[in-house]
């Protein structure tokens, strides 16, 4: 093996650049050539590839949000013909292995390449924390901190104006961001897709709180449940609330990555290269109990699912109610 390709795909997440840096530098340290692929799978098929010539080229990116390789949605990659074109391009460029940084869709792309016999490794880069085989994904910690900061600010206004705020956070179909930021921000209720909820019961509790002297409230809703506006409309049916709906949206995906995301990205990026040097491909890497580990990417995606720790929701209920 002489050349490794690196691409970021799907939604950006804080720490992707730290992972790019780790993969490229670890490859160079081992005497390999590292090639960056712009615009994800789309850029791969089009041959939008450049050589990372020196370690100096990677200076100053560990703390940058977004991805220097940029990303692009490319639904055509679901087609076998497009996948084979990508492999043809990789062989034409002399790239022997591909490291893909991204979320669920990106992982499925790497899995398809693996099934076609091309050496690929998935590195979990998504704020949603919804990838099986890892405790945390790159970007999750930063997104939680951004959401928590926003919730703290909203709480200030809620207390000042005696209002109820329904705040929608990202996470796709997973409730992890809602759980972690909601607990950290002292939310009155956290609503996630992995757990049953009762809007009427939440409204009744807010009314009871008001009678007991707490005249404001904060409800954190995961986007996989419904929108903040929809939840607010349902909530208002069960009480005379001065309520507001807020959607945090893409502010959660950008900005400077936390130290934790930078370290996880560095660990996983280096680990992916070490696996390739050992002749191991077709893997999905992740963090378990602070240590990197790897699993077969086909088995990981076809036979396992991410499990949100719903006990955190129970914890919040005990602390709030």
From TrEMBL:
Q: Binding of ATP: at which residues?
A: 11, 73-74, 103-106
Q: Which UniProt keywords apply?
A: Allosteric enzyme, ATP-binding, Cytoplasm, Glycolysis, Kinase, Magnesium, Metal-binding, Nucleotide-binding, Transferase
Q: Which cofactor does it need?
A: Mg(2+)
Q: Which reaction does it catalyse?
A: beta-D-fructose 6-phosphate + ATP = beta-D-fructose 1,6-bisphosphate + ADP + H(+)
GO cellular component annotations of the record: 6-phosphofructokinase complex
Q: Which GO terms describe its molecular function?
A: 6-phosphofructokinase activity; AMP binding; ATP binding; fructose-6-phosphate binding; identical protein binding; metal ion binding; monosaccharide binding
Family per similarity comment: Belongs to the phosphofructokinase type A (PFKA) family. ATP-dependent PFK group I subfamily. Prokaryotic clade 'B1' sub-subfamily.
- Phosphofructokinase domain boundaries: 3-276
Please cite one Gene Ontology biological process associated with this protein. Answer: canonical glycolysis
Subunit and partners? Homotetramer.
| Regulation of this protein's activity per its record | Allosterically activated by ADP and other diphosphonucleosides, and allosterically inhibited by phosphoenolpyruvate.
- Annotated InterPro entries: ATP_PFK (IPR022953), ATP_PFK_prok-type (IPR012003), PFKA_ATP_prok (IPR012828), Phosphofructokinase_CS (IPR015912), Phosphofructokinase_dom (IPR000023), PKF_sf (IPR035966)
Q: Where does Mg(2+) bind?
A: 104
Query: Which residues participate in substrate binding?
Result: 126-128, 163, 170-172, 223, 244, 250-253
Entry protein name: ATP-dependent 6-phosphofructokinase
What does the UniProt entry say about where the protein is found? Cytoplasm
PANTHER family reported in the protein's UniProt record: ATP-DEPENDENT 6-PHOSPHOFRUCTOKINASE (PTHR13697:SF4), PHOSPHOFRUCTOKINASE (PTHR13697)
Q: Which residues bind ADP?
A: 21-25, 214-216
Extract the Gene3D superfamilies matched here. 3.40.50.450, Phosphofructokinase domain (3.40.50.460)
**SUPFAM superfamilies given in the database record:** Phosphofructokinase (SSF53784)
Functionally, this protein is described as follows:
Catalyzes the phosphorylation of D-fructose 6-phosphate to fructose 1,6-bisphosphate by ATP, the first committing step of glycolysis.
Which gene is transcribed and translated to give this protein?
A: pfkA
Task: Report the Pfam families cross-referenced here.
Answer: PFK
Question: Principal place where this protein is found?
Answer: cytoplasm
What general EC class does the enzyme of this chain belong to?
transferase
